Known about the structure:
Layout: H1 17-27, E1 32-38, E2 44-49, H2 50-64, E3 74-78, H3 83-95, E4 99-102, H4 109-118, E5 123-126, H5 134-145, E6 152-155, H6 159-162, E7 190-195, E8 205-209, H7 210-224, E9 233-234, H8 243-256, E10 260-261, H9 279-288, E11 293-296, H10 298-304, H11 308-315, E12 320-322, H12 329-337, E13 342-344, E14 347-348, E15 352-353, E16 370-371, E17 378-382, E18 388-393, E19 405-406, E20 409-419, E21 426-432, E22 437-438, E23 444-445, H13 447-455, E24 460-466, E25 473-479, H14 490-509, E26 517-524, H15 541-547, H16 549-560, H17 576-591, H18 609-625, H19 640-643, H20 647-659, H21 667-681, E27 701-705, H22 710-721, E28 727-732, H23 740-751, E29 763-767, H24 778-787, E30 790-793, H25 808-822, E31 831-837, H26 866-880, E32 884-890, E33 893-894, H27 907-918, E34 921-923, E35 927-928, E36 931-932, H28 933-944, E37 953-956, E38 962-963, H29 964-979, E39 987-989, H30 990-1002, H31 1008-1011, H32 1018-1032, H33 1051-1056, H34 1058-1062, H35 1068-1080
Parallel strand pairs: 1-10, 3-4, 3-5, 5-6, 9-10, 9-11, 11-12, 12-13, 25-26, 27-28, 27-30, 28-29, 30-31, 31-32, 32-37, 33-36, 34-39
Antiparallel strand pairs: 1-2, 7-8, 14-15, 16-21, 17-18, 18-20, 19-20, 20-21, 22-23, 24-25, 35-38
Organism: Cyclocybe aegerita (Black poplar mushroom)
Protein name: Acetyl-CoA synthetase-like protein
Pfam families: AMP-binding, AMP-binding_C_3, NAD_binding_4
Amino acid sequence: MKRDAPVFPPLDGSLTIPEVIDFNLYHNATHPFYVFSVGKNGSDIVRVSHLEFGRACHRAARIFNPATAKGSGTVAVIALADTIVYQAVVAGLIRAGLVPFPISPRNSPLAIIHLLQESSCHKIVGTRATVGNLFDEVEAKVAAAGEPFKLDFVEIPTLEDLFPKLGREVKDDSFVPYSTLAQRPSLESVCMYLHSSGSTGFPKCIPQTHRTLVEWTTVSLPDMKSYTPRLVMGTMPLPPFHTIGIYLQLIQPLFGIIPIGVFPPVVHSSGDQPMPPTPDNTLKHLKSTKTNCLIIVPAFLHAWVNSQEALDLMKSFVFVGYGGGPISAKVGDALLAAGINLSSLYGGTEFGITTVPALGRGSESNWEWVRFSEKITVNWAPQSDGTYECQVLTTENHHPAIENMRSPRGYATSDTFVRHPTKEGLWKIVGRIDDVIIHSAGEKTVPAPMEQVILGNPIARSVVMFGRNHDQAGVLVELAAGHEIDILDEAQVADIRSKIWPSIEEANRNAPAFSRIYKEMVLIASRDRPLPRSPKGTVMRKAALNLYEEDIERIYRVVESTAGTGKIVPPKSWDIAGLTNWLVKQANDIRSSNAISPSKDLFDQGFDSLSATFLHLRISSALRTAQQFAKVEDSLGQNVVYAHPVIVDLAQFILDLLKTPVDGDTTKGKVAAIENMIKKYSEGFDAPLPLSKSTSSPKDAVLLTGTTGNIGSHVLFFLLQDEGVKEVYALNRPSSTDGMLARHEAMFRDKGFDVELLKHPKLHLLEGEASDELGLGVESYRELQERVTSIIHIAWRLDFNLTLSSFEPHVRGTRNLIDFVRQGPNASNVRFVFTSSVGSALGWDQSKGPYPEEVVRDPKYAISNGYGESKYVSERVLEHSGLQASSIRVGQVCGGQPNGAWATTDWVPIIVKSGLALGALPHAQGVVSWVSMDATAQTILDVAFAKEQAQFALNLVHPRPTKWKEIMGVISSELMIVSGSTTPLPLIPFYEWFKKVEERAKNPAANDFEKIPGIKLLSFYCKLAKADQILGKKPGNHCMESAGMGDFSTSCIQNVSETMRMVPPIAEVDIQRWIAYWKGVGFLV
């Protein structure tokens, strides 16, 4: 039958939902509202017209409010009913002047009571027979609470009550309309309540006004309702009580006159249930109803990707939209390859519809990206990990149902997105703010992208990453049907891990080092403990992690106590060849690589502290498994991989250990290693520097390394503020995760700096490294040589576990920067400032007095750890270079202005956090010469820009030290606020405090590594505690440096730097800034 063109209701708010129902009864009576198929093969299509649906709404209104259209009050709809009945009941309640509240029957009794109380709802329309004991339990719990909260229950109307001539009713059939609307509803009045999924607790009750619901239609309907050919949208498996069901199955056909494909009604008695949605029956009814577009949940797309029948059908659709969760990249790309116009959609009960599907072809490759409607105003709030939170703002044309922002007004979604790297206006959701995993070292893992990759493995049903407050990330994997195993059977677990490992390797490939997942950190969920799911079917992340908390912490206890990782197959032969091959195999497996060389430094090949930990664990396990060597494990040493980072050397060390247990490197060997490296990187300095005719100023063009670090970002901040500085070149290594600007923005926000300064035209962000040609290419390198007048070299790896050999790339990088100057046209004029460390003097003999501001040429005084030794080597190499150079030995740096930022991975903040949990702080003898971050940075610039070239060696420590006891006393008082105590934390002797930490380390509780991070620095604190005991026996210790840190002369640096001459002692306000910062970043709670 040919129909006239639809008469579309206005979308400007001049008609509300009850008025639109009547509008369509008159203007669009013959146009289909719903379509479904019946018959043996679904060959008969039934079309429910707007006339039928409108009349069903009137009949429902009469049932619920027979007397008048002046009804009031909220009515909950908790029912398992056919879609057409359910939505007619919801619309009928609105038509009767009541406020419907569709509630998922999957909610718990307590959650339902919570929603009823929040909405002051005392009446339930439902299907008592098909929801089990749900209503009985609700009534029982209300009665048990003893609160006067009356509940009335009404059975939902039947299909026959509402649609007496289903699919056949015409205008001439008898019908008694419900009362005329007594008055037009206010746009600001509540039209209905909807609820959130409740994934983080009880679901939230969210009022939807007539205005907000009408505004939803202005986003997607203008394009969709006029599309040719007319759209028929499939929504069969969408629950009618969800927001997406309410919108697509009720509001969209009311305002857009778009026919909606649904399952046929099958409920004819009180015990019947609606057709359960499955991929197979959904596919069948999509075909038989001749729908030409689809909005679906991801689970169905994952099921259909391997069905040619499904792919062929979806290929014919105008579009296939999905939402409510992610689909894996493999599935999305496979659908794209099949020719399907796939669109990601985004919206929320709290803030409405925000995006539209791509109706035309040509943008299919953007399937995982969304474009927000021009009707929506979004504030993109940058996060520290390079993502942006979506904040939907309140405007004249769009009013979120809930506002949680005041200035500007709007709704902060907590959903995080990344912008498309090349296509303006496209965004991809990557997770939620509260999903971000913050590791114990402060790094942040965004789990969603990695989870989606792992979900591409067919044996994985669900994936949840974990790792909050731990060094390394792990993953909880729920297996797909047919792949379940006995998780107590180690062989089965090992087999399933190997099957899912290729997908984890793929996820690791593009992940930062701290986010990578190791085999030891793969946890398989038990079939007896399925992961909790929301009514949408998505995994409830927090509930899942809570369910498996004990299992997760058990893994970390094993790893963090270095007790081994179970049985590892040992080498086939314990000789140099067999052990080397075994170590290479283990290293490749840990790094998800096939390229580990046995003759190169592991840390130059991508190894980090976690990799070293796991390799050490595997060596230990192999020694235990080979029982004849089990006793040798105790002699292995925690830092064996750091001490022997080249596999052939490591293998030889282990073999020597098997013969005669020995202890590490000797002092003589370390001195020789230092001298050899100095000699190696000082070659070629014999030629004199060419004289330069340039009269440039050191401020003309500054090349600065390490600007994404703590000191470097402060130096950069001051350079950008200094009007006398003309050009700044910030050279940093590229990142595989974040762009260069995003990394700087994150650091500036962390420090409380004005991010807008990073837009200054004199700043040039360079991606390269201190390698040959600085990684820049010949042309850029030469141009930079022409321009640069000062170099400030700060970038250095901070890791006290590594040996000198692992820092050789940094020494080589320093030599490359020296060559950059020496081989350039301005070699004799360029200033070169190197930030060395007091760590290069930890072996100094204090009986000789303070460490002098001169080059100490005996390397034995530099022996400590690889970090300090490498700084000493570079200082000596720079001295030989002949450049206008200064080496500034920087001491302990503390938080400074403006916000007191002090990295939570430093040893002092860790003392504070651990002390809070232990109920005491350590008292140490003597004073500390800590310098604030801002004063340190300004002093470096004082040296770089001094009128006359400063002397070569300078010590940057505080010339006016502060007593340890005074600092800890203020911290103790400030922590009263954090802990809620009425008394300050007591100060106890450092050794006694260390023993408290040691005791907790012996038998740590599940959360001790989080609450007492000092456990991980136990050996370091042991050295401080013993040094404090020695200092306590010395006369005059009240003015000596605390914890054996050593005294340093500062007279020369005070002559050069006004900042150092005038720097005030650490004050109470400085300490208060530290505490405020640590609280602000969630470190102290």
